[in-house]
Fold:
Amino acid sequence: AVNVEIAVISMVLALIVGLALALLRLVRFTPVSVVAGVWVDVWRNLPLIFILLYLSLTIPGVWRDTYEDAIPSWFPEGLQSGRVLAAILGLVLYNSAVLAEIMRAGILSLDRGQNEAARALGLSYAQSMRLVVLPQGLRRMVPATVSQLITLNKDTTLVSIVAIQEVMRHGRILTGFNFFGGVQAQVLQVFLFIGLLFILINLTLSRLSRRLEVREQRRTAAVKPVREVAEQAA
Structure:
């Protein structure tokens, strides 16, 4: 449950930050585009385990205390500790950078004429991106995006290095104790079961991705004309 909770929060934040970074990389104002590009290149080329260790050592104690004071009491117990802040922040920084490149590639894969036609019909840059470019680009990004989210879910096993009691740490604890008169929990069976849990969750995500692809293909057998979008925006 702790792994799923951390994964869900990180997925939502990584998608939001990733889309923002992708759009910043595409702006025509060169300084903004360059800064966003450097940010993405730095975080996506660092090992995730390095990011998690670095953040766990450098995040100020005040931030952890503020997090623990601000978190509602009804939140899951696994998210109450301030240590989870480094885990979530590390997962978001790394995965948002990777998703930014996926989203940027999806947007750039569209025919340039789509955006030009939208602008010629009077749509602003924001309107053309929101109504014409992003809806088509996001559909193309679904397989790669879901694949990265599956990777993110698997990467939650790394948060045990910052002393968070997630499934891998629980597995190691379980195999380190003796139960029922000295009968020790078998290492192989415990970790096979943990692997099965991840297979079930990630297979569900894969099936959901496929269903979304099929639904979008049926719903948009042909791309909506740009003129029709412009009329709706007007």
User: Anything to note?
Assistant: The longest strand covers residues 178-179. The first helix runs from residue 2 to 26. The radius of gyration is 22 Å.
